Amino acid sequence: MTGSIQGLQRFESPGKGRALRVTRAFKVGELLFSSAAYSYVLSAKERGCYCEFCFSRKNGLAKCGKCKKAFYCNVKCQKGDWAMHKLECSAMTAFREKWCPSETARLVARILAKKKTQKERCVSERMLLIGEMQSHVEDIDNEKREMSEADIAELHRFYSKNLDFPDHKDLLTLFSQVACNGFTVEDDELSHLGTAVYPDVALINHSCLPSVIVTYNGTSAEVRAVRDMKPGDEVLISYIDLLYPTDDRNTRLRESYFFTCDCQECESKSKDKAKLKLRKKSDPIEPEVISNMVRYARRSIRKFRSLLQCSLDSVAPPSELLEMCEQTLEEMGTVFHDSNVFMLHMMYQAMGVCLYMDDVEGAIRYGEKILQPYMQLYPPYSLNVCSMYLKMGRLYMVMEKHAGGIKALKKAMAIMEVTHGKDHFYLTEMRKEIAQK
């Protein structure tokens, strides 16, 4: 891969293993490289809205004549996807409502099919990179191992007629590789569209001070500089949400990727005080009170995630989720400032519930509290800040507050011109959206 892309070089980074670095200067917003997915899958929840093959969003998609569940732009896209869709088409028809493999199992099935095809033709560099992808199968805890075992069971149940499987140990390794190296493909508002494997992009190591950002153009990943880079600089992305303080970020990295970050920000913890800002009071707040509230906040986040899953399973009503958000915000607000990241987290969840309930005014009320702290706490050219401007701009438009909507959309566009490139179709559509107002 790197040999064919000017300005990039693969190397062994001390303590990190495989890595990429630049061999020439790159400016902010400049494209380092674009990478086609080795394998990808559209989320089942987005079927009917996006083309299974190219991930284009449009009205009037044509459905597969057999299963009636996959949708395409045209015959060309349908033919292009058949090698992968045939793994599922007959199974969906046979199992009907009982067809329910996880997205990870679906992606692994496609990787196995792709590997078989490539072995029959030749061993490509991209296939070799798949084999080199990091695996921590020996490090995963019991819960994650049980999830992998469940995925393997689904693989055998739903795909046994179309695939030959490697032995159990190799399947566990492959699922671990996908967990560590898979990418969530997202739209302009960071909504989940699908999952993909990009072996070239997987070479890039993590930093909480990233030099590049990964965005998506259809099913391709694009890597652009968010800092000026000079020859010899390592290419670094963030694997996680950077909003949270150092301890929380590293907990997430250990749980998901089995390492601790030692970047300059993690060493200095320079933003932690602002991220954990306290409410001003006449008497100083005792350290024990603060630590107890942090523990309460973390427990509340875990509980909300559990309730959210119940809601997705039609058990917990949205009103219960919103009530929990409001109660948690009230409790945390006795100690935390409104710009504290745990407050922001729960406000963002409340905003999402309001949107689900079509409470536009409620969503705007929470969004307006979130935006300014986001700008201060996230790095420049953050997709999280961009998606908030997009959401707010579109909500203002719904409320016919066109001046505020256009202002927010233009701020989003300024970020996207760096993160997505000035010619990205998201920007083309937004320019049309603004012009119509």
From TrEMBL:
Residues 6-240 form the SET domain. InterPro entries: H3K4_H4K5_MeTrfase (IPR050869), SET_dom (IPR001214), Znf_MYND (IPR002893). It is an enzyme of class 2 (transferase). The keyword Zinc-finger applies. It catalyses: L-lysyl(4)-[histone H3] + 3 S-adenosyl-L-methionine = N(6),N(6),N(6)-trimethyl-L-lysyl(4)-[histone H3] + 3 S-adenosyl-L-homocysteine + 3 H(+). One of its GO terms (biological process) is methylation. It comes from the Eukaryota. Keywords: Metal-binding, Methyltransferase, S-adenosyl-L-methionine, Transferase, Zinc, Zinc-finger. Residues 51-89 form the MYND-type domain. GO terms for cellular component: nucleus. The keyword Methyltransferase applies. It holds the Pfam family zf-MYND. PROSITE patterns: SET, ZF_MYND_2. Its EC number is 2.1.1.354. GO terms for molecular function: histone H3K4 trimethyltransferase activity; zinc ion binding. PANTHER family: HISTONE-LYSINE N-METHYLTRANSFERASE SMYD (PTHR12197), N-LYSINE METHYLTRANSFERASE SMYD2-B (PTHR12197:SF290). This is [histone H3]-lysine(4) N-trimethyltransferase. It comes from Solea senegalensis (Senegalese sole).
